[in-house]
Design goal:
Elements (H helix, E strand, L loop, with lengths): L8 H6 L10 H24 L21 E4 L1 H9 L6 H8 L4 E4 L1 H13 L8 H9 L3 E2 L4 H9 L6 H13 L2 E4 L12 E3 L2
Parallel strand pairs: 1-2, 1-4, 2-3, 4-5
Length: 196
């Protein structure tokens, strides 16, 4: 069955017994319009480019303010900022606190932090939803796209999927990866900032 929403005529003819077609036609039209408008708004938000980063096919377009540096935080750097800033070198801490710089997080870092909490390797205090809202405040959420997945798979890098996603995100979105992981330093086209 096709997952794409269109006019619905082809889908109705192909799958006449599906439950969606048994509803009142006015209701169905409303569902299609609502779903399409949600997709349009999502598409508009994705292409608004609030962070000013480059998307394929949209080179040269810059929206929003000019950031001095766009820093993608590796999971351990993000957790150190939140729980143990003494782990961070003075120079790096200054860059992270500099309001001219943008701080970016990948959803893969959220997944890693929640997984570490589940395994008992770190402790996240309070309700996880509230913790996440506080922990991500003031950061930009890096999208996880098909292009990032492809680049991540093609990188000459060890097999840790989270590290691959972070490196791929930095490359595709033209971000500087902030890390203390020696395995992520010196990857050629990916800019890095180390905690040294």
């Amino acid at each position: 069955m096709s997952l794409a929403l269109g006019t619905g005529v082809q889908d109705e003819k192909a799958y006449p017994s599906h439950a969606i077609w048994k509803t009142d036609s006015r209701c169905h039209a409303s569902v299609v319009r609502t779903a399409q408008s949600r997709l349009d708004r999502l598409d508009e938000r994705l292409h608004r480019n609030r962070g000013g980063h480059r998307f394929p096919g949209r080179r040269g377009i810059r929206l929003g303010g000019v950031a001095r540096l766009k820093l993608l935080l590796d999971t351990h750097i993000w957790l150190w900022v939140l729980q143990n800033p003494k782990q961070l070198r003075k120079r790096l801490l200054q860059e992270l606190r500099d309001e001219a710089n943008e701080l970016w997080l990948s959803p893969i870092s959220t997944w890693e932090a929640l997984t570490l909490n589940f395994k008992g390797r770190i402790r996240l205090h309070g309700d996880l939803k509230e913790w996440l809202a506080r922990a991500t405040a003031g950061t930009h959420e890096a999208p996880l796209t098909h292009e990032i997945a492809l680049v991540a798979r093609q990188l000459p890098l060890h097999q840790d999927p989270a590290d691959r996603i972070l490196a791929g995100t930095a490359q595709v979105l033209d971000l500087t990866l902030v890390t203390a992981d020696k395995r992520l330093l010196g990857l050629g086209t990916i800019r890095t900032m180390t905690n040294r």
